[in-house]
Each structure stands twice: as structure tokens, then as C-alpha cells.
């Protein structure tokens, strides 16, 4: 009877763990993909009670009211300068915390998920997964990237287009392993940990418990 009760408890906990694991993708936020670096075309600083905005290239980002930490002054941003926005964003893509930074070597690294070759006269494009987003960057006309360079984890150099202020890929840097590269964008995850982690530990614990219970029941029958 005790072994039967234990097996029932194990099945119940295992079911809850699997249900929890199945639900974790819903915790991930989705928002419009964008690359946060380029030439600033407009800037209105947010306040504690009013929203602001920043235009980078041809994309304008909303800066939520209160997105500047309490007691801090909004960062000075000069229209025409080249910079990168960073911070957390909500499900609509608006920044709920906001800062700016320079990019050093101006590289972007990550798994390439799609690409279109550039021609001598027309831009191509490349899509790179960064955290929870997969921004698509133009590839400057005349830049040739081989199929090997647009497959797997790679790093690329980018620069700002004089035509529209958008960042565009201008050269291939090399493969991306695991260490962050200079200028790599920070993760835009709204959580500092993987929500599936605790459930994976629960699942492992349940499986170990189930195995021990089966061995103990077999020993008792012997």
C-alpha cells in the first residue's frame, strides 16, 4: 500500500512538473525585433510622469514614463550622434528602463537565422538572434558574405549608413564561440534567470525518487 501511495505521489508531482515545463514558453515576452544602434534622428527625454522617445536610424523607440532610474538625470543624447540604446523593454517594445552606451568595436554576434546576399548595387540582409529578439540588419551593397560566414554563430562589423542612419553590416569578423565580443548587444531578456530552470531540477528530482522507489519495491518483493 505504501509503495502504491508513493508511486501515485510521484506520478502527481511529475505531471505538475511537466505541465509547468510546458507552460514556461508563455512566460517569454515577445516584442518587435530591432537593432538598437545607429545615428540618433530625434530624442525626447522621458520624465517620471511623461513618455519620451528616441529615433535611431529609421526606427523610433518609446521611452516609458519613469524609465530613467529615480534620482538620475536623463542621459544627454545629441541628434546626429551615433549611439546604442539599452535597457529592458515591455511586450510592445517600449523601453521601461533606458540608457545609452557606445559600442567599442561595433560588432554584432550571434546565431545567423536568415540572410539575403547583397549585390554590387543593392543591399542584402542578415538576421541574427540576440537574446529574445532576432533583428534583421541590412548588408551594405557590394559586401560579399559566403554561405559559411552566414551559417551558425558568427560575428560581423557594422557601421552607420550615411543615407538613413541605420546600422548596416560592412564586413565579416569571424566565428562566435561563447565569450562576449566587443560591442555585442546585451540580452534584452526581462528576467535574469531561465524560468525553466527550477522545473528542470524538480523533474530530475522526481525521476530520481521514482527510480529509488522502484528499486525499494523490488527488494521488498524479493
Describe the protein.
With about 220 residues, this protein is an alpha+beta fold. It is built from 2 helices and 10 strands. The strands form 2 sheets. The protein has a 5-stranded antiparallel sheet with strand order 3-2-1-4-5, with no helix packed on it. It has a 5-stranded antiparallel sheet with strand order 8-7-6-9-10, with no helix packed on it. Strand 1 (about 35-45) and strand 2 form a beta hairpin. The protein is elongated and about 50 Å long.
Q: Mind summarizing the main beta sheet?
A: 5 strands, antiparallel
Oligomer: single chain
In angstroms, what separates the terminal alpha carbons? 16 Å
Structural class: alpha+beta
Adjacency order of strands in the biggest sheet: 3-2-1-4-5
**Number of β-strand runs:** 10
Poorly predicted spans: 2-29, 179-210
Fraction of helical residues: 10-25%
The gross shape turns out to be: elongated
H-E order: HEEEEEEEEEEH
Query: Strand content of the residues, in percent?
Result: 25-35%
- Arithmetic mean pLDDT: 75
**Rg calc:** 24 Å
The number of helical runs is 2
